[in-house]
Amino acid sequence: MGMKLVLDLDACQGYANCLIESPGLFDLDDRTDKAVLLDETPAEDRRAEAEAAVRGCPARAISLESS
Amino acid sequence: MRRIAVVGGSLAGVHAAEALREHGFDGDVTLISAENELPYDRPPLSKEALLNGMPMERLSLRAPEWYEDNAVTTRLGNAAVRLDTARRTVLLDDGTTVAYDGLVIATGSRARRLSSTENAPPVQILRSIEDSLRLRERLRPGQHLVLIGAGFIGLEIAATARQLGLDVTIVEVGRVPLGRALGDEVGAWFRALHARNGVEIVCTCTVEAIERLGEGAVLTLSNGRVFNADVVVAGIGASPVTEWLDGSGVQTTDGVVCRSDLSTSVPGVAAAGDVARWYNPLFDEEIRVEHWTNAVEQGRRAAHTLLGHGEAFSAVPYFWTDQYDARMRFVGRASAASEVVVKESGDDRLVALYGRDDRIRGAVCVNAPRELVRYRTAIRDQVRWGDVTETPSAIGG
Ligand code: SF4
């Protein structure tokens, strides 16, 4: 069972915490100041990083689903 | 271990409870909070919630169903007043006790108040949701707000009040705002930011007297200046909430003294968040951190430690503040730095690095998120000071 990262762009406030927790999975769009998901379905060995990004988002804009 | 009590309806407390369940703990979990609301998020209280108001559903850290779904019993509106570590009970202010086998101390910190405010108009503070609502009612366009203390909370309130159309003056005891936290160079940048936005920061100055005048006050400063204020708010720091631990055997010195895995001097008791002072091996220092992300991660770590999976907590502290269009992010440690280098400085951008013992220890980045990621990695990897200050591209940018 893989995982799927979901980013709610309406909720995102551009805090960049996700970037800090998980630079390989997220970037920030300079124009909109919102997060960009670089890898929607990360490999299993990045689960800890993905979970840290979910927890680290103060706007609760990121969720992790199983796919 | 059958019963775990988490004292403090804080960010750290909620994440401790959550981590207990994630780790398969199926005994009783009780979350004790002095506040009447379910645990909520504090950073918006000086920003978005103060500016536009914010419904409780958005401020709450977890929905009410979450507590039911995870079988977390809440005791709201009940401050812990005493801890008996021999009997393993927490005494609450309504006279009841909660028995535990394991305890997480997450009582956080409270805003300091001015000492001499008797007879003075109520000088407000901003820590709780009630504080934020009360202040919001008083912030009306055209009024004069005086803030005592140019720390993060004071500067955030200043920025919000300007957006709401108030005149704002800040009185700061230090040479620059944020000087103690971030040093003179970065402090001066923030002073200029606020000046551009019409806020005067009166530095190297204290408030000598506050006298009531109608709904507001007359303030006399140590430099002789006297002026009227419609609203006065003190943002002069916070102190860890540990009085309830007096006599319990849990050692405290400006916070609960923890081992590197957040366990305390008493078996079966761990601490997390603003209240915890622990040895961070990465910085070779005992520190206490009042940051959001730290509370999340320490809450989890304290839970793991109680369940017997203790591991040293060595995170790189991370902090953010938003003022006007400046989105400042800070990683690492600035205090005790012996060197500061400003790498970039402009009206809407700032990058400054902090070093000590030939290693990079901290970085301030305003509107520069990628630099932040880069320097955070450098701090974690304890990169040499010269490598980050002399050769800007040397660390993978
Ligand atoms: S941490 Fe959350 S709010 Fe911040 S940029 Fe990432 S997704 Fe957006």
TrEMBL record, chain B:
Residues 318-384 form the Reductase C-terminal domain. It holds the Pfam family Reductase_C. It comes from Streptomonospora alba. Gene3D superfamilies: 3.30.390.30, FAD/NAD(P)-binding domain. One of its GO terms (molecular function) is oxidoreductase activity, acting on NAD(P)H. PANTHER family: APOPTOSIS-INDUCING FACTOR 1, RIESKE DOMAIN-CONTAINING PROTEIN-RELATED. InterPro entries: FAD-oxidoreductase/Apoptosis, FAD/NAD-bd_sf, FAD/NAD-binding_dom, FAD/NAD-linked_Rdtase_dimer_sf, Reductase_C. The keyword Oxidoreductase applies. Residues 3-299 form the FAD/NAD(P)-binding domain. It comes from the Bacteria. The lineage of its organism: Bacteria, Bacillati, Actinomycetota, Actinomycetes, Streptosporangiales. This is Pyridine nucleotide-disulfide oxidoreductase. Keywords: FAD, Flavoprotein, Oxidoreductase. The keyword Flavoprotein applies.
